[in-house]
């Protein structure tokens, strides 16, 4: 009788176990907490101020996140390899002012050509960082801190007190940040395409997976035959290209570009990547998480403004998020390492 009862009960337990097993990969996603935090933030803000999710409000949220999303994708490629680029704001500023200069000199130039020139300019600036890091073997933090000021100085010398305004560019170029497709701003769709393309590259190609191997253990990656310097240089080039793309889109999005364009943006970009689950110590994270982190940070600013919270608290909350993300990542890494040691001890 007891065995019969047990056999009847056991089928009821199996589906539950299978359900948890199926859900486990989703629950372990590093991006899940970011998505939950973003959802809660949007819902709470909407309940306080319903205009927050009006058609124009949603459009503004997406536009505000677009530039940071693209920059965060490029930054993620570097952070995963245990590198960083503090000069992305300066690269964006140079390319944005260069975009204004191109339209001032050649008003009839095709817009696609401006994008190509801007991204090529970004690649050149990214190559400067990449070559100094990989050839001179100087830490990326030191190199890019220096080029941050070098590139900013070049922009100051080039621009001086001059600014290019919305009226100096073709209407079709400015329309990229005004026109929508299926309710999404055109430049936001560009950012989404970038995120998807890079995410597929990172997960579906050998060079993309090599970046994770380099970040996890550079020496082991070298021993395994991975060309570490080449991969890191390519990551800097890709980051430069994306910063160039962001610079062109910035010139379309905002009313003016000048010597100070992009100042301080590098900190927001790094924060977006870290908050989005990219490990600051390298080896893990995703560009999808970085994009969500960018959306979360810009949404925090917008939501706190919508509920009329002082700007100081906006910055404080962002700082708390960064600290929390780093601490949680570090604790998770230590727990994983402990479990690995216990497992190895048992196998011995």
Automatic annotation (TrEMBL):
Transmembrane region(s): 34-55, 61-79, 86-105, 111-133, 140-161, 181-202, 232-252, 264-282, 289-306, 312-332
Keyword Transmembrane helix attached: yes
GO molecular function list: transmembrane transporter activity
UniProtKB keywords: Cell inner membrane, Cell membrane, Membrane, Transmembrane, Transmembrane helix, Transport
Record has Cell membrane as a keyword: yes
Pfam families linked to this entry: BPD_transp_2 (PF02653)
PANTHER family according to UniProt: ABC TRANSPORTER PERMEASE PROTEIN YPHD-RELATED-RELATED, AUTOINDUCER 2 IMPORT SYSTEM PERMEASE PROTEIN LSRC
UniProt subunit comment: The complex is composed of two ATP-binding proteins (LsrA), two transmembrane proteins (LsrC and LsrD) and a solute-binding protein (LsrB).
Protein name: Autoinducer 2 import system permease protein LsrC
Organism whose genome encodes this protein: Arthrobacter alpinus
Lineage of source species: Bacteria, Bacillati, Actinomycetota, Actinomycetes, Micrococcales
């Amino acid at each position: 009788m007891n065995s019969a009862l047990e056999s009847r009960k056991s089928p009821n337990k199996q589906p539950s176990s299978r359900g948890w097993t199926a859900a486990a990969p989703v629950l372990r996603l590093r991006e899940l907490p970011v998505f939950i935090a973003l959802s809660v933030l949007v819902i709470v803000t909407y309940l306080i101020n319903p205009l927050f999710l009006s058609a124009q409000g949603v459009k503004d949220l997406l536009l505000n996140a677009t530039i940071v999303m693209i920059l965060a994708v490029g930054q993620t490629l570097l952070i995963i390899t245990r590198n960083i680029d503090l000069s992305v704001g300066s690269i964006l500023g140079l390319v944005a002012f260069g975009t204004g200069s191109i339209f001032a000199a050649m008003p009839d130039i095709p817009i696609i050509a401006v994008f190509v020139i801007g991204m090529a300019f970004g690649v050149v600036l990214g190559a400067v960082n990449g070559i100094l890091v990989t050839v001179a073997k100087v830490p990326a933090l030191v190199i890019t801190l220096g080029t941050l000021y070098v590139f900013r100085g070049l922009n100051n010398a080039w621009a001086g007190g001059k600014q290019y305004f919305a009226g100096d560019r073709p209407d079709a170029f400015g329309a990229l940040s005004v026109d929508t497709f299926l309710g999404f701003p055109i430049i936001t769709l560009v950012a989404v395409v970038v995120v998807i393309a890079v995410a597929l590259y990172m997960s579906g190609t050998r060079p993309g997976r090599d970046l994770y191997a380099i970040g996890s253990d550079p020496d082991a990656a070298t021993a395994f035959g991975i060309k570490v310097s080449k991969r890191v240089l390519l990551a800097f080039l890709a980051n430069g290209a994306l910063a160039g793309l962001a610079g062109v889109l910035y010139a379309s999005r905002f009313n003016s570009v000048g010597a100070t364009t992009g100042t301080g943006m590098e900190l927001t970009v790094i924060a977006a990547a870290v908050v989005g689950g990219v490990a600051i110590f390298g080896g893990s994270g995703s560009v999808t998480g970085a994009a969500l982190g960018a959306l979360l940070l810009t949404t925090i600013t917008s939501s706190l403004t919508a509920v009329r919270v002082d700007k100081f608290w906006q910055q404080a909350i962002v700082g708390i998020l960064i600290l929390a993300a780093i601490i949680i990542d570090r604790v998770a890494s230590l727990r994983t390492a402990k479990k690995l040691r216990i497992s190895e001890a048992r196998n011995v």
